[in-house]
Specification:
Number of helices of chain B: 6
Strand order of the largest sheet of chain B: 1-2
Shape of chain A: rod-shaped
Radius of gyration of chain B: 40 Å
Structural class of chain B: mainly alpha
Distance between the termini of chain A: 71 Å
Shape of chain B: rod-shaped
Number of domains of chain A: 1
Structural class of chain A: mainly alpha
Order of helices and strands of chain B: EHHEHHHH
Oligomer: heterodimer
Largest interface: A-B, 77 and 62 residues
Number of helices of chain A: 8
């Protein structure tokens, strides 16, 4: 009876000690959130380009210019689609790392399945007298292979992180750099909509009709008050009547412009709200890509040094962007 | 708001504005492109808001000023289209490089999945299971030979054996 544990111990020692396999679950979730934020950031830009071409179309803009903007949007969607594809590949890759780790951790269960299969085989062949030896074989295999699985997983992780590291680094660097262009496209599209809005509401702009009328209204009010305080010796009644008529005309026009002013401000605020959330999303995605890249590097060195990797930063950033993605979705 | 009065003055003012816009755009970098486009757009909107005829009763002059405003609008929208195109082009430029990297990463992920399968000892389990299955089938085939003479039945049993060995072969190759 002493032989069995002895064999197991010797074999286990010969494998080379216990491997410390990391927990990837937080990392894979964070990576998927990052993928979603990169996608949402792209969606935000596509939406704003679309709204820009619509605004130009409504203003009776040049059809060739509008077509160019629409084509740009189509090109953008196609090429941002590659970024989305790249992020999906990164997620798949991270999942595959988690798969290796899980496989390593579940080594004992797998080994048990092997043991059971071998036990079944031995019984099928019928060369093993009795079930006892088959049971011993199964248990031994289970214990030894449990450790083998962990060591194999550790080696596979090291190898994969070493080989995929530069690829990942390059992908994330490209997308991180692209977020700058994304920011530029987003700004240009939003600013174009604001300029168009201002152009369509010229009377409401500083120095425009509304401002002039408000000034004029003040002058007329003052003139009326003066006339009432210090009545003219001749034509007082006509002057008062004239001033009151002017004030009434001015008020009517101001009331129309005030209604336009409310609608203008609402549209203005809406664009600015999209700017805040969208820009926040793009910038947070850029920051998250940087954090992810750094976490991936730390992950590689932690696994090499057989330490548990620290992925708190990337998880925290992912949580931030999840909120921004939700806000953008609500707009 | 910049102002100009009269067609001649406004036309000159717009020409200068378009000229300076071209110069600014030529000097723009990826970092300041959005800001420069914004400044130009604001200046063009300001032009249309401040361009007035000398004589408001001169219908012909009003129409000509409106034509200048329309040109300013067209220029503004065209500059927007140009700058959106150029900022998207920066994204397009690295797409092929990115696609190459995606392929490499996908193959790395695929290799990891295969490693995980091997770590789970799935091929070993498959081999052993296939062997058990093959042996069982062989035994059944042998038994059927001794008890029955039906060729058809033997053929079917042999096919099962071949199938089981094919499975075994595949499992061994996967190791």
């Amino acid at each position: 009876m002493l032989r069995k544990p002895l064999i197991v111990t010797i074999l286990a020692l010969s494998i080379g000690g216990c491997a410390n396999l990391p927990d990837f679950s937080g990392y894979t979730t964070a990576t998927d959130q990052l993928r979603q934020s990169v996608k949402s950031a792209g969606d935000a830009v596509a939406t704003e380009i679309d709204l820009t071409s619509s605004a130009f179309k409504e203003s009776g803009g040049d059809s060739s210019t509008i077509t160019r903007i629409e084509n740009s949007k189509a090109e953008f969607e196609k090429h941002w689609g590659y970024r989305n594809g790249a992020m999906t590949a990164v997620v798949e890759y991270t999942n595959s790392l988690e798969e290796i780790t899980t496989a390593g951790k579940q080594g004992a269960e797998s080994a048990k399945a092997v043991g059971d299969s071998i036990e079944g085989l031995l019984k099928t062949i019928g060369v093993v007298p009795g079930a006892q030896l088959a049971g011993v074989a199964a248990e031994t295999i289970e214990k030894i292979y449990g450790e083998v699985a962990k060591v194999r997983a550790q080696n596979s992780l090291e190898q994969s992180l070493r080989e995929a590291g530069p690829i990942i680094e390059e992908i994330v660097t490209i997308i991180e750099r692209d977020t700058k262009s994304l920011e530029t496209s987003f700004e240009i599209a939003l600013n174009a909509q604001l300029s168009q809005l201002k152009r369509e509401n010229e009377p409401l702009q500083p120095g425009g009709e509304r401002e002039e009328l408000l000034k004029l209204r003040t002058y007329r009010d003052k003139a009326l008050l003066d006339e009432l305080k210090y009545p003219a010796s001749t034509g007082h009644a006509d002057k008062v009547k004239g001033l009151m008529s002017d004030i009434s005309i001015i008020d009517n026009r101001i009331s129309i412009l005030n209604a336009e002013w409310t609608a203008y401000n609402d549209s203005f605020d809406e664009i600015q709200k999209r700017r805040r959330v969208g820009m926040g999303l793009i910038q947070a995605s850029s920051k998250a890509l940087g954090a992810w890249k750094s976490a991936h590097n730390k992950l590689a060195s932690a696994i090499k040094q057989k330490k548990t990797p620290s992925i708190q930063e990337v998880v925290a950033t992912a949580n931030d962007i999840q909120e921004l993605v939700r806000k953008w979705g609500e707009l | 708001m910049s102002t100009c009065r009269g067609y001649e003055v406004c036309a000159k003012s717009l020409a200068e504005l378009i000229e300076s816009s071209k110069t600014k755009l030529k000097a723009a970098t990826a970092e300041n492109l959005a800001q420069i486009v914004l400044e130009i757009s604001e200046a063009l909107v300001s032009f249309t808001a401040g361009s007035d005829p000398v004589n408001y009763s001169d219908w012909d002059e009003i129409q000509r000023i409106e034509q200048l405003d329309a040109l300013a609008d067209k220029t503004r929208q065209s500059i927007t289209a140009d700058s959106i195109e150029s900022s998207i082009k920066m994204i397009m430029d690295s797409s092929s490089q990115l696609n190459q990297l995606i392929k490499k990463l996908k193959s790395e992920a695929e290799r990891n999945k295969q490693s995980a399968q091997k770590i789970r000892l799935k091929p070993v389990i498959d081999v052993v299971d296939s062997m058990s299955s093959a042996i069982t089938k062989l035994k059944e085939a042998r038994d059927s030979l001794s008890s029955q003479d039906s060729d058809k039945n033997i053929g079917e049993q042999i096919s099962s054996v071949v199938e089981a060995f094919n499975g075994l072969d595949k499992a061994i190759k996967a190791l």
